[in-house]
Design goal:
This protein has 145 residues and is mostly helical. The protein has helices at 2-20, 27-51, 58-79, 93-96, 98-113, 120-141.
Length: 145
Amino acid sequence: MHRYTTLPIAAALVATAALAHQGVQNPAVKARMNLMVEVKEATATIGGMVKGAIPFDADRAAQARADLIDHARQIPAAFQARETDPASEARPEIWTDWDGFTQAAEEMEQAAAAIDTSDHATLQDGLRKLGASCSGCHKPYRISK
């Protein structure tokens, strides 16, 4: 049963994020929000495998890992211009602590690169480290809505 409830919940969360982004007027803000949705989707693929909601597939996990590395590399450029929008979740600290923010993106990239996608057992440890890097950025740089 758990396997059948996790996937619809994850799909609903992604759909909710997409709906929330519909009201965004600033195209730069919308682009970076979409980038973060892609991060969330790749993370959900690995998380689903760890939880058993998605069957383990080393190739699919490796693709999600590669996507996370690529997305992490894109984060600084997506936020470099201080673009705003009422729907934005970006805190001003991103720009007032640019070095800390870019370091957090680098830590996410390193955590994603360190994920061992060869088997289910090693995937969990990698996801835990990735999650810590996400929290390390969200807490100081993201507004919770």
